[in-house]
């Protein structure tokens, strides 16, 4: 747990799932910079650092929308000072962290309205706050969706670390919203100021995007892939998944298969097409990913194929001992931080969810050493296939 101090108060914040050993903070200098600006502690400065006028607090009496709040720091701080701030997030984990942080701060459950990127946004937005995401495509998609709710008086402020704000980021705000400038950097963070231009016409939204897998894609050959904004490799199959598809196990008839960290769902869809009697559960913490997986599945699977689509925390929602096969391509980043915590949670969750004799199949970069984790958890890990970059591993749950 770590404390964020603001002029409105101090907040003890955690990520989700909460882990006392986790050294990563639940807020950043970018969050703190934005909150200081909203409270009137920071003036608007131009690109060259010239003072932009007297610092004044932003009026938070209207509808305040917070986009991309990573662990709920912004929403939690605003809950007592804005009229029911609306958080819009693509992350199930961020949404759960926000609920926990709001409760810890003493706020009622209805102190903020929590929406996903797949929900209908507010019809009118008076203050739009944007925590710049890692994915430029996700930012583009959200600005397309939110632009109709803006008006001439809408205050728009983005925030991010200096390394997260690029020329392309500013060009996107400029093209979809209106005139855009940045602040000076503070503690390696920067603010973005945009002024709504009613003459701007964003045009048709470019998402989702669809493409077909080529004949050399193993079990995925010929499948149609649907990607919503923010999903990895929007226009082509990434090389790791391509390698995995060439060595994908064939599920036994009627098996329960889990595509864990499903992304666009191509692994689980390939498993369903190969075995129409299988039941496939697609799980990802990204709401955009789950929507992509469902669209990919519907575009390829048999009409009576069985599937479930879950936005959640790894396998936490799956009953123990109910799964025959888990397919997993675990991430090793949490936003900008490199961490093995997510992979470990996925592997340990898979062991609990599998039936005796059930199998976990994992692909990863060779240097990540997943075989060590798997042997510690399962007591075994066999290399199914490898190349200079990737390795496919198989772990089997024993009867003990």
Q: Could you walk me through the main structural features you see in this protein, from its secondary elements to its overall organization?
A:
- The chain is of the alpha/beta class.
- The chain is 26% helix and 26% strand.
- The chain has ten helices and 20 strands.
- It has helices at 29-38, 73-78, 92-104, 136-146, 167-176, 239-245, 266-274, 287-300, 341-353, 370-378; strands at 2-6, 9-13, 64-67, 86-89, 113-116, 127-131, 155-161, 180-182, 189-194, 209-212, 224-227, 256-260, 279-284, 306-311, 323-328, 333-334, 337-338, 354-365, 382-386, 390-396.
- The strands form five sheets. Strands 5-4-3-6-7-9-8 form a seven-stranded mixed sheet, sandwiched between helices. A seven-stranded mixed sheet has the order 14-13-12-15-18-20-19, with helices on both faces.
- A hairpin with a 3-residue loop joins strand 19 and strand 20.
- The longest helix has 14 residues, at 287-300.
- The chain is globular and about 65 Å long.
- The relative contact order is 0.09.
Number of helices: 10
| Main beta sheet | 7 strands, mixed
**Category by helix and strand content:** alpha/beta
Q: Would you tell me the overall average pLDDT?
A: 91
Report the helical percentage.
25-40%
Q: What fraction of residues sit in β-strands?
A: 25-35%
Give the spatial strand order of the biggest sheet.
5-4-3-6-7-9-8
Multimer state:
single chain
**Element string (H = helix, E = strand):** EEHEHEHEEHEHEEEEHEHEHEEEEHEHEE
Separation of the first and last Cα atoms: 36 Å
* Rg, Cα atoms, Å: 22 Å
The number of E-state strands comes to 20
Net shape: globular
Low-confidence stretches: 46-52, 333-338
């Amino acid at each position: 747990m770590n404390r964020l101090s603001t002029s409105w108060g101090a907040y003890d914040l955690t990520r989700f799932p909460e882990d006392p050993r986790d050294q990563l903070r639940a807020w950043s200098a970018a969050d703190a910079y934005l909150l200081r600006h909203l409270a009137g502690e920071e003036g608007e400065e131009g690109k060259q650092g010239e003072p932009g006028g007297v610092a004044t607090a932003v009026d938070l009496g209207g509808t305040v929308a917070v986009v991309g709040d990573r662990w709920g720091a912004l929403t939690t701080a605003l809950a007592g000072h804005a009229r029911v701030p609306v958080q819009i997030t693509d992350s199930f984990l961020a949404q759960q962290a926000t609920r926990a942080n709001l409760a810890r701060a003493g706020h009622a459950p209805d102190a903020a309205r929590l929406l996903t990127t797949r929900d209908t946004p507010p019809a009118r937005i008076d203050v739009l706050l944007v925590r710049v995401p890692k994915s430029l495509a996700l930012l583009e998609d959200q600005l397309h969706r939110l632009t109709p709710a803006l008006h001439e008086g809408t205050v728009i402020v983005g925030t991010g670390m200096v390394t997260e704000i690029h020329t392309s980021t500013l060009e996107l705000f400029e093209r979809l919203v209106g005139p855009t400038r940045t602040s000076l950097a503070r503690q390696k963070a920067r603010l973005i100021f945009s002024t709504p231009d009613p003459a701007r016409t964003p045009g048709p939204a470019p998402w989702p995007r669809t493409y077909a897998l080529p004949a050399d894609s193993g079990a995925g050959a010929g499948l149609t892939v649907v990607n919503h904004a923010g999903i990895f490799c929007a226009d082509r199959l990434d090389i790791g998944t391509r390698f995995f598809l060439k060595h994908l196990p064939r599920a036994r008839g009627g098996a329960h298969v889990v595509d864990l960290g499903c992304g666009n769902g191509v692994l689980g869809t390939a498993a369903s097409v190969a075995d129409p009697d299988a039941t496939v559960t697609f799980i990802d913490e990204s709401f955009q990913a789950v929507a992509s997986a469902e669209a990919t599945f519907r575009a390829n699977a048999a009409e009576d194929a069985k599937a479930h689509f879950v936005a959640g925390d790894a396998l936490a929602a799956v009953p123990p001992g109910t799964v025959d096969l888990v397919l997993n391509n675990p991430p090793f980043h949490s936003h900008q931080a490199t961490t093995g915590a997510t992979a470990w949670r996925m592997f340990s969750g898979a062991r609990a969810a599998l039936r005796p004799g059930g199998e976990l199949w994992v692909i990863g970069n060779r240097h990540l050493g997943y075989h060590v984790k798997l042997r510690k958890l399962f007591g075994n890990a066999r290399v199914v296939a490898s190349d200079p970059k990737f390795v496919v591993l198989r772990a089997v749950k024993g009867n003990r």
